[in-house]
Amino acid sequence: GQNIDQPTEMTATEGAIVQINCTYQTSGFNGLFWYQQHAGEAPTFLSYNVLDGLEEKGRFSSFLSRSKGYSYLLLKELQMKDSASYLCAVWDSNYQLIWGAGTKLIIKP
Amino acid sequence: DTGVSQNPRHKITKRGQNVTFRCDPISEHNRLYWYRQTLGQGPEFLTYFQNEAQLEKSRLLSDRFSAERPKGSFSTLEIQRTEQGDSAMYLCASSLGEGEVDIQYFGAGTRLSVL
C-alpha cells in the first residue's frame, strides 16, 4: 500500500527554527510537495522536490532523500502566522498526489 | 487571476437529499481535481479532469458521486442520497497540466454537513 507519515502535532517558539519530517512509501515517485493549510482554508503550495538535496525559498527550505524515502520542511525565524498544518504529498507513478495527514504546527510567543 | 473559486462555501442538508457543488478553476488551467478532506486528515483524491474528459475516478468513490466538466471550464460535483458519512470539506484544485512541475492550486472548499 501507499503510506505517508508525518508527526501529528508540533510546538515551537516564535523566532525559533522547526523541522517537520515526512517519510513515504509509494508506488513510484515523481516528486514531493509541501503545502501549508491554515484552519478552514485551502492548502497553498510551498515547495517541490524531485532531486535529492535542499531547496531554499526564503524562510522555508525543503530537503529530499529518495533513497531513504524521506523529506523535511525547515521553517526559520518562526512567526505567529506560521501556525498552520503542513501537508506532505508525493506524486506517485501515475502522477496522482498521495497526501499525508498533515502536521499541525503551534507557535508560542 | 482570481484563483480557484468554489460555491457554496457551506452546505447543510438532511440525509437522503442531493447536493451539488461548483468549482471555477483558474482560467488557463487544463486540469481540475476534486478532493475530500476530513478533520485532521490530508485531502483524499476523488476524481480529475483533463479539459472536459474525466480521466480518473477513485475506487473509493461510490456511485452516488458524479462529477462533470461540460465545457472544460467549471466543474460540478453532485452527491445523491447524502449520508452522514459524506460530511466533509470538498476541495477543488486546478493545474496547468503541462511542464515539469504541475502545481495544484486549491479553492477554499465547500464544507458539507449532513444531518
Please state the CA-atom Rg of chain B, rounded to the nearest Å: 14 Å
SSE order of chain B, one letter for each helix or strand: EEEEEEEEEEE
| Number of separate strands of chain A | 11
| Structure class of chain A | mainly beta
Number of alpha- plus pi-helical segments of chain B: 0
Tell me the number of strands of chain B: 11
Task: Give the topology string of chain A: H per helix, E per strand.
Answer: EEEEEEEEEEE
* pLDDT < 50 runs, ≥5 residues of chain B: none
Q: How helix-rich are the residues of chain A, as a percent range?
A: under 10%
Please state the oligomeric state of the protein chains shown. heterodimer
Average pLDDT score of chain B: 92
The first-to-last residue Cα distance of chain A is 40 Å
Structure description:
The complex is a heterodimer of chains A (109) and B (115). By secondary structure, chain A is an all-beta fold. Helix content of chain A is 0%, strand content 57%. Chain A has strands at residues 3-5, 9-13, 18-25, 32-37, 44-49, 53-57, 60-65, 70-75, 84-91, 97-99, 103-108. In chain A, strands 2, 4, 5, 9, 10 and 11 form a 6-stranded mixed β-sheet that branches. A 5-stranded antiparallel β-sheet of chain A has the order 1-3-8-7-6, with no helix packed on it. In chain A, a hairpin with a 5-residue loop joins strand 9 (84-91) and strand 10 (97-99). Chain A starts with a strand and ends with a strand. The relative contact order of chain A is 0.35. Chain B has 115 residues and is mainly β. Chain B is built from no helices and 11 strands. Chain B has strands at 5-7, 10-13, 19-24, 31-37, 44-50, 53-57, 65-68, 75-79, 88-95, 105-106, 110-114. In chain B, strands 2, 4, 5, 6, 9, 10 and 11 form a 7-stranded mixed β-sheet that branches. A 4-stranded antiparallel β-sheet of chain B has the order 1-3-8-7, with no helix packed on it. In chain B, strand 5 (44-50) and strand 6 (53-57) form a beta hairpin. Chain A binds chain B through residues 4, 8, 31, 33, 41-45, 48, 50, 87, 89, 94-97, 99-102, and chain B through 4, 40-45, 56, 91, 100-109.
